[in-house]
Backbone:
């Protein structure tokens, strides 16, 4: 795999972990401050922002590493050709879903551009909704790589190599 992609993927994994940790810490500190009668009004908005981005980045990491939910015990009983065909069909369905989700995510990002957070008036809600199309675009890239791997009759992605080349 290209060194630039490796670096990008490593940064993405750390970013997803950091964003989830940040959301957890914000919620924790908000609860602590609330117990001292000093609520942080902006905490839920920031936690939502951090959590939304961590979810979509983590989904891409899970897809890339082959950690999506699947039914291996059934698929492994089929011949290799059927496994490849099933993999292609499944990833094409995922690709259509991701493209649809990305399109609606872009539309949602556009219509929420004037909406501000409740606790942070100068921060647009679009920054949260942009996590949907960005995350979907990253997943689409990996989905295309997986389909190419199935079409070449060998895994082109680390996740397939780690799983022994089995289909989804």
Residues:
């Amino acid at each position: 795999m290209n060194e630039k992609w490796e670096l990008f993927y490593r940064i993405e994994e750390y970013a997803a972990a950091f964003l989830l940790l940040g959301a957890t810490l914000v919620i924790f500190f908000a609860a602590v401050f609330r117990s001292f009668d000093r609520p942080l009004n902006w905490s839920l908005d920031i936690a939502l922002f951090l959590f939304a981005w961590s979810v979509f980045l983590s989904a891409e990491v899970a897809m890339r590493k082959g950690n999506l939910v699947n039914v291996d015990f059934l698929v492994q009983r089929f011949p290799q050709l059927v496994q490849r065909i099933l993999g292609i069909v499944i990833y094409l369905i995922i690709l259509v879903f991701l493209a649809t989700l990305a399109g609606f995510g872009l539309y949602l990002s556009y219509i929420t551009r004037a909406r501000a957070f409740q606790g942070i008036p100068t921060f647009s809600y679009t920054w949260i909704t942009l996590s949907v199309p960005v995350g979907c675009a990253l997943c689409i890239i990996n989905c295309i790589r997986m389909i190419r791997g199935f079409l070449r009759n060998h895994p082109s992605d680390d996740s397939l190599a780690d799983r022994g080349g089995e289909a989804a």
Summary: The mean pLDDT is 85. The two ends are 21 Å apart (CA to CA). The helical segments are 3-35, 43-64, 72-75, 80-111, 126-129, 131-151, 158-162. Residues 3-162 form one domain.
